[in-house]
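FAQ: What does a multi-protein file look like?

Like this. Sequence, then tokens, then the next protein.
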Amino acid sequence: MNIALFEDAGYERLLPLTWLRAGCELRCGCDRLLDKVGPRLGGKVVRVWTREAIRSVVTERLDLPAPAPKKDWCLLSARALVTEATSPPPMGVAWQRNGELVGVRVPAEDVQHLEPEFFFDEVAVAGWLAGFRIMPPPPAVGLINYPWELPLANGDEIRRQCRAG
């Protein structure tokens, strides 16, 4: 399974931490939010969709592998904090919390038509999600909304990582 992380307008609530980096580059515990996603969702992060202002820098900095052809995609918010191994959403299901898209699973052909700017358009995203069954994400998948949530989650994440490693 390919995993793509997308930025949405929620990055603005994380300013100034997200002035020069994508939400998935923020740290919690010993590593970045991005580093927790692949191993805990059972796939590889192969794409990060960001706002235009930082796209080229983030692409260069992350150096992600090429996507596997013809595999399903899990699209996950770049602000997602995945705290333990969990299954991605089933095909046709979108995870939402407090009206915000957290993650969705789509077939490979659907990803070809998505652009990074799409996730910043709340009306377009809401219309697109009308074709999915909406469910809350599992407890292992949180959403970082404000800068102070990172240090609040940091202690638990460090303990988790120390037990695992």
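And here is the next protein:
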Amino acid sequence: MIDEEVALKAERRAFLETVRSLEPEDWDAPTLCTGWLVRDVVSHINLNVSLMPLQAVVALVRARGDLATFMDQTAKAGRTRSRVDQLRLLEQVADSARIPPTTQRSDGAIDVFVHHHDIALTLGRTVPTDPARLRWLADGLPQASRAIGSAKMVADLRLIATDIDWHYGTGPEVRGPASALLIAACGRAALDEQLDGPGLAVLQGRR
């Protein structure tokens, strides 16, 4: 059985290493998150240590309870921080297993895994992982938090990984590498060309 704290930290450290390797100009590159620059994605991940509970409540009120607006505003608020400060915060995140209230460690790992791809796929980078962590991440999709949104995306579908021993659910099949299934289930189309099966159109229609 996987050690969830260790696995979460491993995903966060992998993200840290990619961000450390970026050139200064890369921080202002667009990502797969509409309207978000690389620095906004980093800022979003850093909310795990930079956003205190009271601040989160105030920000959610300002967003009138809309989670998407809350996420967008809090991420972009980090644009005032320097790259040095953002990296310092990201180092704290990588050494922490802290997660938002009411969420699971798999939620935190899925979040950083997907956002890692949001940056990497637009900058021509790769995202390292291992089969055990991929299985754990994939197992978390059906019960992930509302903020991730994958639970609705994969409902009544059968997902089958072709690169690791993993499958889930019943219904129209979607087949492909585990990473592509994870990215697709979290609303990204960037790796859809690696997927096939009658359930793919259903999944795409839910975005």
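Q: Is there any per-entry metadata?
A: Some entries carry free-text notes. For the entry above: The longest strand covers residues 158-161.
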